[in-house]
Amino acid sequence: MPSKYRKNIWIKRGDFLIVDPIEEGEKVKAEISFVLCKDHVRSLQKEGLWPEAFSEVAEKHSSSRNRQTQPELPAEPQSSGEESSSEDDSDLFVNTNRRQYHESEEESEEEEEAA
């Protein structure tokens, strides 16, 4: 593994960490000691060691994960014939790392007429 990746750790939004404060350095104030997975959080909650301030955040995050993992039933196809399945892109993955460009039908028609 290249040296620039050896000390990196990837953490998702909603994950919990145990950190220790460090004295050295001006920008870095703490060092990651441990990354808590959902099993660790559950066991700490059962033992009563989980802080009350984090319990609401953990419950919201776990419920949002459950909603994302539950498959949605596909809608029944419309038989109007006007809309084709290629025009309906609502079930496609949306990349949140890119800007969203929305093009209306009116703008595309104006561009076609101008060309």
TrEMBL record:
Keywords: Initiation factor, Protein biosynthesis, RNA-binding. GO terms for cellular component: nucleus. Belongs to the EIF1AD family. It comes from Phyllostomus discolor (pale spear-nosed bat). This is Probable RNA-binding protein EIF1AD. Interacts with GAPDH and STAT1. Residues 55-115 are annotated as: Disordered. Pfam families: eIF-1a. Residues 1-37 form the S1-like domain. Plays a role into cellular response to oxidative stress. Decreases cell proliferation. It comes from the Eukaryota. InterPro entries: EIF1AD (IPR039294), NA-bd_OB-fold (IPR012340), RNA-binding_domain_S1_IF1 (IPR006196), TIF_eIF-1A (IPR001253). GO terms for molecular function: RNA binding; translation initiation factor activity. Residues 104-115 have a biased composition (Acidic residues).
